[in-house]
Amino acid sequence: MSPTRLAGAILAGGASRRLGRDKAAEKIGGDRLIDRAGFALRPHCEEVFVVSSRPETPTGPWAVVHDVRPPCGPLGGIEAALQHAGENGYDAVVVLAVDLPLVDAGSIGVLIGAFAESEGGAVVAARAGEPDFEPLCAGYPTSCLATVVELLESGERAARALFQAVGGVRVQGASGASVNVNSAADLAEVTARLQGDGKEVLQ
C-alpha cells in the first residue's frame, strides 16, 4: 500500500567543500537551492523540513531537524529525517538532497507514485552512472529507521547501503536526479540549462 502521510526532508548538512561556500544558499533563477528542494517536496508532503546540524545552513522558512548523532554523512541525515517523521505520525519520508536542483515537483510525484509497487520498501530515482540510482532522491517508510540505525552502528555511512539493505525499487521517470551541483562550474551549467528550458523558477 502507498503511505498516506508523507513528510519531506531537505538534506542540507554537507560542508560544500568543493564549492567553497554553502551550496544551499546559491541561487538559480532567483531561488536558493534549499528553496528549490522545498518547492519540489511541498505539493506532496504535509510537512517539509531541513536536516542539518550546521548553524550556518540558510534555512529561511523551513523548520530544522538536527542529526541524531554526530554528523555521519547523508545516511545520518536520513536517520534524523526518519526519526522525526516517525515521532510525528508520518508513514514515510521523501528525502531530497539540496544539490539536486533539477528534481521538481513532477519528479517527486512520479517517485511517490511508485510506493504501491515497493511492497513497503524504499523507492529511489533511477539515474545514469554508478550507482544507477540516487539514494538522496528517494522515499523511505519510517519502518526503515531500524535498518538505518544498524548500518550506522556498524560503521556504514553510504546512503546507497540503505537502499540495498531494504530491497528498494528503482523508479524510472523521476528525472533530474543525475545532476548534482558540487562546484561553481556545475552551478553555471545547471543555470544555463534551466534558462534555456525556460524553467528557472519553481515557486
Short description:
The protein has 203 residues and is α/β, with parallel strands linked by helices. Helix content is 31%, strand content 20%.
Relevant terms:
globular; alpha/beta; 203 residues; single chain; 6 helices
Q: How do the strands line up in the largest sheet?
A: 5-4-1-6-8-7-9
Order of helices and strands: EEEHEEHEHEEHHEH
> What is the number of beta strands?
9
Major sheet details:
7 strands, mixed
Notes on the structure:
Helix 2 runs antiparallel to helix 4. The protein is globular. The strands form 2 sheets. Strands 5-4-1-6-8-7-9 form a 7-stranded mixed β-sheet, sandwiched between helices. The protein has a two-stranded antiparallel sheet with strand order 2-3. The chain is built from 6 helices and 9 strands; from the N terminus they run βββαββαβαββααβα. It starts with 5 loop residues before the first strand and ends in a 6-residue tail after the last helix. The model has no long low-confidence stretch (mean pLDDT 86). The protein has 203 residues and is an alpha/beta fold.
